[in-house]
Amino acid sequence: MKARVTITLKNGVLDPQGKAIEGALGSLGIPGIASVRQGKVFDIELTGQDIKAAEAALNTACEKLLANTVIEHYRVEFPG
Amino acid sequence: MRAAVITFPGTNRDGDVSRALRASGADVTPTWHADHALPAGTDLVVLPGGFSYGDYLRAGAIAARANIMDAVRAHAARGGLVLAICNGFQIACEAGLLPGVLVRNANLRFVCRRQTLKVERADCVFTGHYRRDQVINVCIAHGEGNYICDAGTLARIEGEGLVAFRYCDAAGSLTPDANPNGSLNHIAGIYSANLRVLGMMPHPENLTEQLTGGADGKPLFDSLGRAA
Q1: How many angstroms separate the CA atoms of A34 and A26, rounded?
Q2: Do A20 and B104 touch (CB under 8 A)?
Q3: B103, A66: Cβ pair inside 8 Å?
Q4: Domain coordinates of chain B in residue numbers?
Q5: How many domains does the structure of chain A reveal?
Q6: Minimal Cα distance from A21: which residue of B?
Q7: pLDDT tens digits for range B2-45
Q8: Over the stretch A48-67, which tens digit does the pLDDT of each residue have?
Q9: How many angstroms separate the CA of residue A33 from the nearest CA in chain B?
Q10: Is pLDDT above 90 for A17?
Q11: Which domain covers residue A64, as residue numbers?
Q12: Which chain A residue is nearest to residue B149, measuring alpha carbons?
């Protein structure tokens, strides 16, 4: 079973990297971009098949290591 | 003063901080991150600068989960002293020893230069050999030194007088140009609520002898070395 963990910055946390990327996209002339926020994605291969157990384990993984919850949100998904 | 200086994979300031501590009268025991216990009788734990684990995931994130950190947290909880410098400050925040987090410098540049700091208080074990509001000249070298925390935490840190050092200009003014990384309220270093844990981005260990261009870092080690 595969899981995807997405880490994003909380609203209001300054994202200088996202700002720089936003500026670079603007200078490439790509239209219609209002703003960019950079995050992280972890694709995780799981040994079991129990989604509930996996979700609990991955929430713990996010709280303990993958996210710094002072500045970041996390989302755990099980894509098809 | 018995100091345990922790080395993580990628730590590179352990040698100089140990030398600075010894020159100020401390006994130093090099301590490995994979150990589960601190040396017996440790008064002070030092988390030195460097690039532990190559700054993977977030600066300090992986080192903060090393075996030795449970012992460091227990030491701090007992009121033991912790000095966390640069990457050590990042590790201390990630480990929950200090509030807040250090993120990418606001201008996205790695800054490596001399910097003036204002000493906010001289009445604790780390800074007894400085004067309050003294302006000192130290070194900074970091890409992720932008200190941020939520508004409630910031109000508490300021209200309880837990700011240790602020980035300032040579005259001691907190001008925007004197803030090298975008830190809230020019914060360069903070204390824990009991004033026993100090985290700071600048490197006092770089300037402890005139031979290396200044000695404004030495009073910090003298304050510690001669305490306890």
Answers
A1: 10
A2: no
A3: no
A4: 2-225
A5: 1
A6: B108
A7: 999 999 999 999 999 999 999 999 999 999 999 999 999 999 99
A8: 999 999 999 999 999 999 99
A9: 21
A10: no
A11: 2-77
A12: A70
